[in-house]
Design brief:
With 561 residues, this protein is of the alpha/beta class. The chain contains 21 helices and 14 strands. The strands form four sheets. The protein has a five-stranded parallel sheet with strand order 7-6-5-11-12, sandwiched between helices. It has a four-stranded antiparallel sheet with strand order 1-2-4-3. It has a three-stranded antiparallel sheet with strand order 8-9-10. The longest helix is centred in the middle third of the chain and has 25 residues. It is flat. It starts with a helix and ends in an 8-residue tail after the last helix. The chain binds one RNA strand of 75 nucleotides through strand 9, strand 10, helix 12, helix 17 and helix 20.
RNA sequence: GCCCCCGUAGCUCAAUGGACAGAGCAGCGCUCUUCUAAGGCGUUGAUGUAGGUUCGAUUCCUGCCGGGGGCACCA
């Protein structure tokens, strides 16, 4: 629709101002307030001259031949030209929403592109704490938005399975042995790993002797030279990965690719050495990249021992990604504390493989912090992702005591609602912004919240289940067009959210839609009214749109709640 | 010291250079003889500060104040 109107406006401008170039680009967009219309153009302001006069001229030309998808064109404010969609067109939109069903909202913004997203990088042997929830929730939503925009998306998780933290955890396992059977719960296994890491970290700080032992263990892990240590390492890694998988399942993420640091370390080392003297240089015994030439800073790629650092591994990871496929775009989502780091790494990469570097984009998400005190896996006072989900589920359970949900479905619904509450609190704001986490404030079921959106869809579906009348969008005379107008904007919102990698735009839209529907619901009887078939069409379209929108956020819609 | 990001109602957040800056929470007052009150209706309340660019600035530029992050062998 936006394109259609833009074409119309462009044609009219050519007629009114033949051969004149506007001072600025003429655009058609959604006005901030829907009361002004469904779309607006700045055409009258963009051309020089009195905006009101310009607008009048444009208006008279459009009105001479008003397309049937518009019911009105008007001038307002400083000279905006507002377009209002006609009831006839809105009825057609409703009909097509119902026809398209789960496909409604799909758009061509990224049509045909192959995109790789990398977004949850937890470390085996460490707990999956709530900080890991951020990239997962954001990454999953962006992946889905891109899929709705026509892209083929594959998801990757990159995990640190080598490094000092592992040595510490294995040292802890050796000095604090516990017999845990394979059949025991993953919760118990990962709690033990978490403890072992705490034990090892403390020991590392306590004495030089321990420090040395841990470094030795680390070297043995790296070389896989000690059978007993290999056994502990392999078991711990397996437990961690199984545990992560369990969490991904609850969150609704499925990765296509898993890459471990140990798999790219060797190639990273080789890559840096091969470009020594060209891209990298030696400095103080290490191999570094001087980023100052590009306004950045210097970073170490190979340490004094000649071992690859994170930066070298990331170079190899980037090339590995493109050996899988010629991605049109490779998106990496990490904490924003890595923003500067990524600039340097990509700068180095652009000297080695510019065609690859040019297609990589890094996005830094905000940090999840606590109002009181810090969280540290070294201290062992982390809030794990699992415990947050469980605490939230407990609240949902309280709330559901009175609900109609059948016993055997409760667990499933509790999960969906709890996950919705958590995901919403992350996605409602801009990606780069920190979240000061406070359980009572961040996890909400009322007002603007994930469960509020789910509730709206459930309520709409509940109405639909109570009648056998067939929804029919045609008979809309005398009915408010507000809801239909909201629905007509969904595709534009989905497209913009994808283009800007901005799930919060979709969140805001869904809240507005929910509010409009609930308001409609409170003041109109649907079943049994004269307008039943039309109101059912609206209700059905809302249910579809809400479910599709929530889906793009990675939130499931329960049947009942 | 250098570089990057952020300051919007009491609190937590929205807002594509435009039209009276949107919500929710908290507060106050209503609202289930209609289909899920996790709802609806009403009400109080905000762009850190000083300049600049622009017909028009929360948005762009500069200074100041305040907060966060990064800057050599961790990831």
């Amino acid at each position: 629709m936006q394109e259609k109107l833009l074409a119309l406006v462009a044609g009219v401008c050519e007629e009114v101002f033949p051969g004149v170039t506007p001072r600025k680009e003429v655009v058609v967009e959604r006005p901030s307030d829907m009361a002004h219309g469904d779309y607006a153009t700045n055409a009258a302001l963009a051309f020089s001259g009195n905006p009101k006069d310009n607008a009048d001229k444009i208006l008279s030309v459009i009105n001479k031949n008003l397309p049937d998808y518009l019911s009105g064109v008007s001038v307002a404010g400083p000279g905006f030209i507002n377009f209002t969609l006609s009831p006839k067109y809105l009825s057609e939109v409703l009909t097509s929403v119902i026809k398209e069903g789960p496909k409604f909202g799909h758009n061509p913004a990224f049509a045909g592109l192959n995109i790789l997203t990398e977004y949850t990088d937890p470390n085996p042997f460490k707990e999956f704490h709530i900080g890991h929830l951020m990239p997962n929730v954001i990454g999953e939503s962006i992946s889905r938005l891109l899929e709705c925009a026509g892209a083929r998306v594959e998801r990757m998780s990159y995990q640190g399975d080598v490094g000092l933290h592992i040595g510490k955890a294995v040292w802890g396992m050796i000095h604090n042995p516990q017999t845990i059977l394979d059949s025991e719960s993953l919760a118990k296994k990962t709690a033990y790993l978490g403890q072992s890491y705490v034990v090892g970290s403390k020991a590392y700080e306590e004495s030089e002797e321990n420090k040395k032992e841990i470094q030795e263990i680390n070297e043995k892990i790296f070389k896989r030279s000690d059978a007993e240590i290999n056994e502990l390492y392999d078991r711990g890694k397996r437990w961690s990965l199984e545990h992560f998988e369990e969490i991904y399942k609850i969150l609704g993420t499925a990765f296509d690719h898993y890459v471990f640091e140990s798999e790219v370390a060797g190639e990273g080392q080789r890559l840096v050495r091969a470009n020594l003297g060209k891209v990298f240089e030696e400095s103080d015994g290490a191999v570094v990249y001087k980023g100052e030439k590009n306004g950045l800073h210097t970073r170490v790629f190979l340490n004094k021992q000649g071992l690859p650092t994170y930066e070298a591994k990331d170079l190899a990871l980037a090339l590995y990604k493109f050996s899988l496929r010629e991605w049109d775009l490779s998106l990496t989502i990490t904490g924003k504390e890595q923003n500067d780091y990524f600039r340097v790494m990509l700068s180095a990469l652009s000297e080695i493989a510019p065609e690859v570097a040019g297609r990589i984009r890094h996005m830094g998400h905000g940090l999840l912090r606590f109002a009181t005190g810090k969280m540290s896996s070294r201290e062992g006072n982390v809030v794990t992702g699992e415990s947050l989900i469980n605490d939230t589920k407990e609240l949902v359970r309280q709330k559901m005591k009175e609900s109609e949900v059948p016993e055997d479905k409760r667990e499933e619904v509790e999960n969906m609602v709890a996950v919705a509450a958590i995901k919403f609190s992350i996605l409602k704001q801009g990606i780069g912004k920190d979240i000061i986490f406070d359980f009572d404030q961040s996890i909400s079921f009322e007002g603007d919240s994930g469960p509020y959106l789910q509730y709206t869809a459930v309520r709409a579906n509940s109405v639909l289940g109570k009648t056998s009348m067939v929804p029919d969008a045609r008979n809309s005379e005398g009915e408010s067009q507000t809801l239909a107008r909201f629905l007509a904007h969904f595709r534009d919102v989905m497209e913009r959210s994808a283009r800007e990698y901005a799930p919060q735009l979709l969140v805001t839209y869904l809240l507005e839609l929910a509010s409009a529907f609930n308001s409609f619901y409170a003041s109109n009887k649907i079943i049994g009214s004269e307008k039943e078939s039309y109101r059912l069409a609206l209700t059905k379209a809302v249910a579809i749109t809400m479910e599709n929108g929530l889906g793009a956020l990675g939130i499931k819609t329960p049947k009942v709640m």
